[in-house]
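Task: encode each sequence below as structure tokens.

Item 1
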Amino acid sequence: MIKPTVAVFFGSRSTEHDVSIVTAISSVIRPLKLSQKYDVLPVYIAKDGRWYGDPALGDIALYTSGGIDAFLKKQQPLSVLFDHGLKLVKNRGLKRQTISVDVAFPALHGTHGEDGEIMGIFEMAGVAYVGCDVESSAIAMDKVATKQVAQAAGLTVVKDVIFTKSEYAKAQKTLIDKIEKELGYPAFVKPPHLGSSIGVTRVNNRTELQNAIEVALVYDWRVLIEQAVPNLREATLPILGNGDELTPAYLEEPLFDSNEFFDFETKYMGSGKKTGGKKAGGKAGAQGYSRIPADFKKDIYDEAEQTALRAYQAVGCSGIARVDILIDYKKEKVYFNEINPLPGSLYAHNWQRRGISNVELVERLVTLAQQRAADKRQLETAFNTNFLRQF
């Protein structure tokens, strides 16, 4: 029996390049191989944008040892062929190897991947691919657009001020005054198009605000400033599924000091140590310490879960995504925050608590990709007309 070929794409020209490598190898490539159902091809996209395909690229030691650059110097980059699907072509001297991809599994965080760009390539090729489509990925990776869609769906969001780099250059004082008047302190400054909390800063005064805006504008052409939620408890919900057939994991509460926030350092570098979560009885997950399931009152838990599910559907997510929620626990008010269309490490630690192993998780994602591709093939994409005959 011929196994379907699953190509796993990771790395790329992104600030989250290294996080992508860990997600791809630990949470996608390894369990796909363990399933013994697929031929797995690691496709590493280097920081210069070149694509490389080789089984050795699925070994984390190649990256942790610093040997990746020397390895790539001996490799020929892949070329892409659109020929009744997606084919990857690898030249080895006079030999040419063509690999037909049955399912593309993007494990790309941030720009040039998670934002929908690579999904456009998969769509043009007509190949099944895992996760959110072009439109939903692009919306989810734009925090401003996501909030607008959520509001249109009737969800509650945090008050904000939004402006572009050019607007800030023309009216810096006016915008700073507006932020202080409408939002006050503390507030959060965010580059709308980045994930993993990169460039996000909590500010408590005018000087910190100005500095944080300058930092955000290094990463993005637009800035999102949000009012801090008082009495804050955060929650996040990973979700699997297409359309109306959705499976939520457990609502998870990251544990951290209320004066801190869940930044990149906390998520990926400190194992939650600076948050004090371990003392609170939390479990170590992929991104620090958290409580699974969150111990909110039942009505708050249910409202947070429903808010996440409604946001997932409103944005049009499919395959997998993670929805983040903010809660004012004294006023018992639930806010939609944002959507991550590719959760770090697929949030496998949460799914395991739900009884879904890493292997079953990736198998489900491949099946969902194949189902969506089959549904799309039923749609007409061509329309015959007599338009050209008039010329």
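Item 2
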Amino acid sequence: MPARNGPDYRYAAAYAGDAVFIANRRLQCQTWAAAGVPAYCFRFAAQPNGLNIYSGVPHFQEVAFVFDNIMGVGYAPPLPFTNKPQNFIDLASLMSKSWASFINSGNPNGWVGRPASSPNWPEYSVATQDMLFDANITKLAMPEPDTWRQEGIALVNSLNFAYQR
């Protein structure tokens, strides 16, 4: 299927997402980690209902999961969890409990009733470790190196410093 927005849309969209969201998030997490400030960073890759495969997982899609909003309250149809498998419901439960635990204690891993099989969300480190949340993987979440599109994001962040002077 041809790109609906022209042949270079994918590249422009990737750059825009990197420049506006991902590069800044990565630089922020790396800066905190280098200063010894605990940080818990993540990448969200579960595609809710209503998005086509070509749109990927845009900004804000994790919100229904973070608030365990499996009923889709406040969303216009199609609702995020409609016709999605149990993994999506389980991921919403894991994410909402992790966020609530972080808000309560500063640690997303400290919630009551947390199963031993639940993945440990590591503190972000200078070795670039974040958490991947995705309902399409067996464990729903797992630590991963924060190296996604590393070269391009490093370029964006190198230019960031030029504008801070």
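Check on item 2: The radius of gyration is 17 Å. The chain has a mean pLDDT of 88.
End of task.
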